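Deliverable D5.2: sample structural annotation.
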Amino acid sequence: MAVPLFLFLLLNAAAVPRAGAEGADPCAGRRIHIRGLPPRFNADLLRHCGADAFPLADASAAATSAPPCESLANHGLGPRTHQRSRSWYRTDARLLEPFFHRRIVERDCLTDDPAHADAVFVPYYAALDALPYVLDPALLDASARHGVELAEFLARDQPRILSRRQGHDHFLVVAGSAWDYAQPPGTEPRLWGTTSLLRLPELANFTFLTVESRMWPWQEHAIPHPTSFHPASLPHQRAWLARARRSRRGVLMLFAGGISRPSRPNIRGSILAECANRTDACVVVDCSGGKCSHDPGRYMRAMLRSKFCLQPPGDTPTRRSTFDAILAGCVPVFFEDLAARRQYGWHLPPARYDEFSVHIPKETVVFGGVRIAETLQSVPEAEVRRMRKRVLEMAPRVVYRRHGSTAELSGAGEDAVDLAVDGVLRRIRRRTRAQEEGRPERIYATEDDSVEM
């Protein structure tokens, strides 16, 4: 398979003009160096899409999504949902890494000289490099080696870049949950579907941007799950938010997700049971078997008609559906803090959650007899409208704008990529300052993990 044009642009990032200005330095504290890596760590990994053994689209989604190699269209956003669409794409979340790379290349304040950089971006496509370990049974026992070749390369090639700050100024993106990359290297037998990337001592000081972090986010920080909405202009973004704002919402609550009945009591089972008994108040969108992965129309229309969108944890606490709901102006209902409040502090300030979401402890529903519909019906309509307004105000912060988005849109506020990079730069500044001041106890402080708006 030929290397797409956008990969040529990524691998030749040095050709991108750097920002400069007379007088005050607009790039002070914001300069990023993109670490040069051999193609085997990024571009070559995209060729997996054409391989029978390690496809980018798994079999469960194959019947409802575009052919796997089409996921690479539009710089990793995937094919458009329909020909006239300018903002909606069939996005494969595992391609967040090359898309994020593309957006970094477009930024101002890049520098070719790592000695002048405030941060070093490592364009490693970790989730794609993990595919052989998680899909090939023959490589299961080797999953502890995920990332070892990268670590060896960084230590060997221009070692001063890594040693200057012992890796505290390095960051990279991992398209998945941190739990999928945090298996202890000595685990026997090896756990299927996970690797030990985050356990590599050579990368211990790096900041990892993941779509879900662990409880102790000293090493990683969560960034929003990518949705299918990637506006390229301010009018496109405003048009969608206006549609969500004026949408008539005759449904009290909606659940979009897998509908298989659990073998033991849990919050998803309670939701499905209540929705089966309250068809007047609840709508269920069946997303079993990857039906919704590449088909946003399947659930977005229903979300636009609903007041509340239920966000129960599944295999892990967080859900892409949370961010789909925010885009639709459907007030998210959380059942545990790990689902979002303790995850996305750079994008959704924890102190403001009560302004745009509802929290119902899952234990009170599963074991305490609390009825979700009754709880939500008790919320005054004026309060629901205020929460919906606040949700739509937050929406641009969780959107991943299309690459090459117009200057008008770029100047309208920071999107998910901008906020993630700002957060990384804050974290790196704090860590390097602690190093310079000889205060190692401050290196792993986490007060920068949430921001006030």
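Annotation notes: The radius of gyration is 22 Å. The longest strand covers residues 170-177.
The annotation will be released with the project's public dataset once the embargo ends.
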